[in-house]
# Entry
Amino acid sequence: MSKVAFITGVTGQDGAYLSEYLLKKGYKVHGLKRRSSLFNTDRIDHLYQDPHVEHQNFYLHYGDMTDSTNLIRLIKEIQPDEIYNLAAMSHVQVSFEMPEYTGNADGLGALRILDAVRLLGLESKTRIYQASTSELYGKVQEVPQSETTPFYPRSPYAVAKMYAYWMTVNYREAYNMFACNGILFNHESPIRGETFVTRKITRAVARIALGIQDKFYLGNLDAQRDWGHAKDYVRMMWLILQADQAEDWVIATGKTTPVRDFVKMSFAEIGVELEFKGQGVDEKAYVHKCNNPEYQLELGKCVLEVDSRYFRPTEVDLLIGDASKAKNKLGWECRYQLQDLIKDMMQSDIKLMQKEQFLKEGGYDTLNYFE
Ligand code: NDP
Ligand code: GDR
# Structure
């Protein structure tokens, strides 16, 4: 009998990788998808199965983390062996604009899942993975951060996720449920959302290389993050639910890099060396050398400026994780180094932008409703 998994946030970066990973393992996968006015299933279109075919193993259901009755009904119908609660308003800066909604979807949303399992009497059947985050550590208390480092959240997003974290621990202790937190540090990929800093950078570098765009704008270049590849991290989500005991786990590469260096490395990937001048909001980056004849970037051209609109009211300055527990007890290893991640993202974004350029040159990109 195939195991049955229910993934909330199936249309997101991690939901897409995890779905494919579990399907390859022979699972039946059910995903929760929000209704939207356009298709928002690009990341999972390759997994889609027509509901009219026999032996379907990938199913999508409409729903929302703010709608308890919907979640209870779905969990009752699906009877999952494993739930991966990945759905969230996951953008830290946006959470300052939408604190109440973020609390509802990211904090109470997790409670709705836990409580649905309890209400339906599935405590001993259904294992739950909660997508917790290194943002919980917030203001630096100690480095590297591990399962025992105290939390100090610095955004409505992190505060909501802290509620979800402790609810998961509480339901595990109070009702003996197999509920675990994966405290995952930043993880990225070619399908990372376009407004997170890594993807914003690799997209912009590709566009600048192809002459579609002149320059781009970022906020705090000094922030340091422990960046891994999402493919490595979804493998870990699954391992966490296969462990003998329900516990909380830090997943990280153990290396940290400033945003500025991520920019340098992304340009270096296409053979362009940058020079940074100025400080704070006056900092800019210029083309210093272009070693790739394919991309005709003028020397001295300004390609990056700092824009204060991308600074956060409270910032998380430094994240670097200690994943020794997961390495020792679950045998987890990360296969991708930062350089491999950047290569993967740059190659994919160059291809994507070449497509965009092709459409533009063919005159297929314009849309005017009143023409
Ligand atoms: P994404 O932003 O790519 O995906 C989030 C998913 O949640 C999307 O499918 C989104 O749907 C869905 N969603 C958002 N709000 C709701 C809602 N109210 N009801 C139902 N679905 C909703 O995030 P990631 O894949 O990067 O991250 C997955 C999870 O892991 C998130 O909870 C995130 O906070 C957490 N996390 C991520 C880390 C990372 O570095 N990526 C690190 C640590 C934790 P839609 O497509 O319609 O927008
Ligand atoms: P983060 O990721 O906040 O760590 O949350 P993000 O990529 O948004 O920011 C990383 C760092 O880069 C700085 N930064 C910018 N960030 C964005 N988005 N846009 C910019 O223009 C920019 N310029 C500088 C930020 O200030 C920050 O310091 C991600 C999300 O996936 C969360 O859901 C997850 O929980 C954490 O990672 C771990």
